[in-house]
Design goal:
Layout: E1 3-8, H1 15-25, E2 30-36, H2 47-57, E3 64-69, H3 73-79, E4 84-89, H4 92-108, E5 113-118, H5 128-136, H6 150-153
Parallel strand pairs: 1-2, 1-4, 2-3, 4-5
This protein binds adenosine-5'-diphosphate (ADP).
Length: 155
Amino acid sequence: MIAAIYPGSFDPITKGHQSIALRASNIFDHLIIAIGKNTDKQCMFSMEERLLFIQKTFADIKKISVVSYEGLTIDFCKKNNIRYIVRGLRSDMDWGIESTIAHANRLLSPLIETLFLLTEPQYAGISSSVVRDILINRGDVSAFVPDNILDIINK
Ligand code: ADP
C-alpha cells in the first residue's frame, strides 16, 4: 500500500486544499492530511477545530484521514513509513516557498519525494488567509471553504 502525506496548517481548510487532497487520494492508496504544530504561527482556529473541519470535509472518503503532528515533516514520514509528500502550487510565489522547503527536505532525507499538484484554475485565488480575513469581517465564505463545514465555520 502506498501512502502519502499532505502537510500544512489548514487554518482553515479551503476548497483549494480539498481539491488537492481529493486529487492526491486518486493517485495513492491512502492520503494522510497532517496538520503541523507550528510554534511561530499564530492560528485563528485551534488544532481541534482544524482537525474537525478536515474530518467533516472528508467524512465520506475512507482513503483520506487526518492527524496532527509536531516536529519535522520528514521525521513524521520516517516514523510512519511514508515516502511521499504532496503539496499544492498556485503561483510562482508558492514555487519560491515550496521549492525551498522541498530542497531542504531532500537534503535531510533523499528517500522522500515531494510531489506538487498544480491547483485547479478556479482555486488559484483561494488561500486560508483570505478566508480568515472574510470571516473576521463577517463576509460570506461559501465560495472558499468546503460545503460540509459551512455551518460550523460560521459559528
Ligand atoms: P502552510 O502553512 O504549510 O503553507 P497551508 O495550509 O497554507 O500550509 O497550505 C498547505 C499546502 O496547500 C501548501 O502546499 C499550499 O501551497 C497548498 N495550497 C494552499 N492553498 C491552495 C489552493 N488554493 N490550491 C492549491 N494548493 C493550495
